[in-house]
Amino acid sequence: MNRRDICEAGAELIGVDRAAQYGDAVVGFTAIAQIRDALDMVRGARPRGAEDQALDMIAVKLVRASANPRHLDSWIDIVGYAALGGEIASESEP
């Protein structure tokens, strides 16, 4: 697959009514930003680490699951990101 094919596949993906699956993009992105702001507030001055990225991905999936709780992929992804984040955090403990 070349770059043109990839761009065309992306255009097809966003051209489909994804709102039916995940809700309105602006509403979802706003909710994700609010969750990330809350995570940053609690994290404080601690430098952002790989485990924080796992939390950010969980935030994305939480919003998607909230928009469509019957879409099991979001629930499965939450479990996967939590497991990865926990593993990373346990390996970086002093």
Concise account of the structure shown:
Pfam families: DUF6378. This protein has 94 residues and is mostly helical. Helices cover 79% and strands 0% of the residues.
Notes on the structure:
It comes from Paracoccus solventivorans. This is DUF6378 domain-containing protein. By secondary structure, the chain is an all-alpha fold. The chain has one domain. 79% of the residues lie in helices and 0% in strands. Helix 3 (25-43) runs antiparallel to helix 4 (50-67). The longest helix has 20 residues, at 72-91.
Topology:
Layout: H1 3-15, H2 19-22, H3 25-43, H4 50-67, H5 72-91
Helix pairs in contact: 3-4, 4-5
Domain DUF6378: 7-89
Pfam family, one: DUF6378
Protein name: DUF6378 domain-containing protein
What is the strand tally? 0
Q: Tell me, briefly, the overall form.
A: globular
Taking the sheet with the most strands, its summary is: none
Span between termini: 44 Å
Strand content: under 5%
Number of domains: 1
Helix content: over 70%
Rg, rounded, reads: 16 Å
Helix/strand order, N-terminal first: HHHHH
Spans of 5+ residues with little confidence (pLDDT < 50)?
Answer: none
The averaged pLDDT comes out at 91
Total of helices: 5
Q: Which features does this protein show?
A:
94 residues; mainly alpha; 5 helices
